[in-house]
Write a structure and sequence with these properties.
It contains eight helices and 16 strands. By secondary structure, the chain is an alpha+beta fold. The chain has two domains: about 140 residues, 60s Ribosomal Protein L30, Chain: A (2-Layer Sandwich); about 180 residues, Beta Barrel (Porin), CATH 2.40.160. The strands form two sheets. Strands 6-7-8-10-11-12-13-15 form an eight-stranded antiparallel beta barrel. The protein has a five-stranded mixed sheet with strand order 2-1-5-3-4. It is elongated and about 100 Å long.
Length: about 400
């Protein structure tokens, strides 16, 4: 809801933007819903200004609804929302005469709907959506085309990111009486004066802040490693629409002396990925990608046997992966790496109950053996948690 205050002692207008939201199919003003509590506090501070009531000319409320559903139903819904805001103002502020408060309604808010699509470059099939909205079709036909475009991919994005913001309540325009400008008196012949009542400007169309979720980074864990109790964490950062970079750490450090079991591994990997396909039609970090990877590490492995191995390794190669959504903030990714693996290893035997305790004795001859491998070097089934940053975008820039 926009509140526009025109101070009576100034020639220019001062403007306050207050947005009120309604629940789906709701016409009851809920102060606890979304940011309504803070918005109503701002409205209260504005109306309780000592200059408001004595200089109040009128209040016009204009309500709207999201372009989702039958047009006639949405028109009636916006009427109820306008009346709800009017009832709130006249009920809470009895000092305001009811005949000074007007309720208007516009039905579906296609103006801001179009603006949101034009502003958000991440929405799938943006150009096709704009062409549909700009066409001369009826609103019902436009809505059907939008919902069925690309098997509903664009509509799912709209329903998640746009519709909650389009379910706003009203634009509340508060008009104030202007103080007459004092002029010097001049002696002139008296003439009949025509009294022309001041004209009121029409209330402006609602300008709703566009809240865009921009991905900051994704956190991943390879479930295959987790099953083996190999603790791991990967961070991936998207760069533009087509690229991303990632860094991974694997750091299990487990040891059970009497059970002849050791799994100690410290490794770090980095990768750069190129995401395939039409990125305007896909959400970030979903679909197919290919890339390069490389990493180093050290390890000590002894798996329920007297024999064990310690060493360092290096690997690098090509990788391919596919990722898809499983929830609002979660993805699954399946990846395979193929390349070169080099290990510098030393084998040992576990000897228990010596005068020094349980010890590991390297085998003779005591030398480091280099082992090389070309082929698959890793496989991942990763759970991905995407962290987003919400950005409020208004006319004039991002704030």
């Amino acid at each position: 809801m926009r509140v526009r205050a025109q101070e009576h002692q100034h020639k220019t207008d001062s403007t306050n933007n207050i947005v009120l939201y309604f629940k789906i199919d709701g016409a009851i003003l809920d102060s606890t819903y979304m940011g309504n509590n803070e918005s109503l506090k701002k409205l209260d501070e504005l109306i309780k200004n000592e200059l408001i009531i004595p200089n109040l000319d009128s209040i016009t409320i204009v309500a709207s609804s999201s372009p989702d559903g039958k047009e006639a139903y949405n028109l009636e819904l916006s009427r109820k929302r306008a009346e709800s805001v009017k009832a709130y103002i006249t009920g809470k502020y009895p000092e305001i005469k009811k005949e000074l408060v007007y309720a208007r309604y516009t039905g579906e808010n296609w103006v801001d709907f179009k603006r949101m699509i034009e502003t958000d470059k991440n929405i799938p099939h943006r150009e096709r959506l704009i062409n549909i909205i700009n066409s001369d079709r009826e609103n019902g036909a436009k809505e059907w085309l939008i919902k069925t475009l690309a098997n509903g991919e664009s509509w799912r994005y709209i329903r998640k990111n746009f519709l909650p913001q389009l379910r706003t309540g009203a634009v509340c325009v508060i008009y104030y009486k202007r103080e007459p400008v004092k002029e010097e008196k001049k002696e002139e012949p008296k003439k009949e004066e025509k009294i022309i009542p001041p004209q009121k400007s029409e209330p402006e169309t609602p300008v709703i802040p566009l809240i865009i979720s921009k991905p900051l980074f994704a956190m991943k864990t390879n479930l295959l490693y987790d099953v083996l109790s190999a603790v791991n964490l990967e961070i991936e950062i998207p760069i533009g629409k087509q690229w991303s970079v990632a860094a991974e750490g694997i750091f299990p450090w487990w040891k059970a002396s009497r059970a002849d079991w050791t799994m100690q591994l410290l490794s770090g990997h980095a990768s750069v990925k190129y995401w395939l396909g039409d990125r305007d039609a896909k959400e970030v970090l979903t679909g197919w990608n290919i890339g390069l990877y490389g990493g180093v590490g050290k390890y000590d492995l002894q798996l329920f046997d007297k024999d064990g191995e310690q060493g360092d390794f290096f690997d690098a190669g090509l990788q391919a992966a596919y990722a898809h959504k499983i929830g609002k903030h979660f993805h699954m990714e399946y990846s395979l790496g193929v390349g070169y693996l080099q290990r510098d290893t030393k084998e040992y035997d576990k000897v228990n109950d010596t005068m020094y305790g349980d010890i590991k004795v390297f085998r003779f001859p005591w030398k480091v053996e280099r082992k090389q491998w070309f082929g698959p070097t890793f496989a991942k089934v990763s759970l991905v948690w995407l962290l987003n940053k919400k950005t409020v975008k208004k006319e004039g820039g991002v704030k």
